[in-house]
Design a protein that fits this description.
Length: 268
């Protein structure tokens, strides 16, 4: 397994020039896998990792045989247009579609502040680089569901995360001084985040309930014509790999099992 780190983030170097958007990162990761000698591989991503993973799929290197995402770009164009115009939801939405509409509507109205700031003025975020408390506050208040989850952890409730997990994550950015360099990806990217990208290779989607929106199967099937796996989970949010690692691993195995060669399936 290869787990690359986004340029400018805690485990990576900081780009010294501009241009490191998801498209360029995708190209770099394809080259990385080729140089490592992989003749076949799959890719997985959520959040910015999904943006990069989908761009890898659009590059269509012959070695990449499928992808999995836990934050799909699957909002239909007419739904996105209505949301941006703050119109009422269209009639005829299913229960799952209406729930997704409400989640995205809430996020657009109440949860985009941090992204807008990093998108427009990432270099002004000195406070999160000068104060560990400021950095922690910025990271813990990422979205309402994640903040509620973290609050439950610090109240002593049993969740997928521990207090140490949360503090370790903040500390990684603090010790490497990558709070501002990681924010630049929001400024670099010009991709419409939730718009379908017309991915043409086999794709699996795990829809967690506390993601920014829990993508309905109907939207997902339109966005990914070669959808090989779809599952709605009962627990988990935006940072699913971090919060629910066991379930997350099972979801990836379920997605990619059908892509394994018969010989390898027999061996396992």
């Amino acid at each position: 397994m290869v787990i690359p780190s986004l340029p400018g983030y805690g485990f990576s170097g900081k780009p010294t020039g501009t241009g490191w958007d998801p498209v360029r990162i995708a190209r770099a990761w394809v080259v990385l896998m080729q140089r490592l000698g992989y003749t076949q591989f799959v890719a997985q991503g959520g959040d910015w990792g999904n943006a990069v993973t989908e761009q890898m799929a659009l590059l269509a290197p012959p070695e990449l045989i499928g992808i999995h995402t836990n934050m799909p770009a699957a909002i239909p164009a007419d739904i996105e247009k209505a949301l941006q115009a703050q119109q009422p939801p269209p009639s005829g939405l299913s229960a799952d579609e209406r729930r997704a509409w409400d989640q995205v509507d809430f996020f657009y109205k109440n949860g985009l502040g941090y992204a807008s700031e990093m998108n427009h003025r990432p270099q002004t975020l000195y406070g999160i680089a000068d104060s560990p408390v400021g950095l922690a506050a910025w990271m813990l208040d990422h979205d309402a569901a994640s903040q509620a989850l973290i609050a439950r952890v610090f109240d002593g409730q049993t969740e997928g995360l521990t207090r140490d997990d949360i503090l370790d994550n903040v500390t990684l950015y603090w010790l490497t001084n990558t709070a501002v360099s990681s924010a630049r990806l929001y400024w670099e990217s010009k991709l419409p985040f939730f718009a379908p990208k017309h991915v043409a290779i086999p794709t699996g989607v795990s829809a967690f309930p506390d993601e920014l929106y829990q993508a309905p199967r109907s939207w997902t099937e339109k966005a990914y014509p070669k959808l090989i796996y779809y599952n709605r989970l009962e627990k988990g949010g935006h940072f699913a790999a971090w919060e629910q690692p066991t379930v997350f691993s099972e979801e990836m195995r379920a997605t990619f099992r059908s892509l394994r060669s018969p010989q390898k399936q027999a061996a396992h």
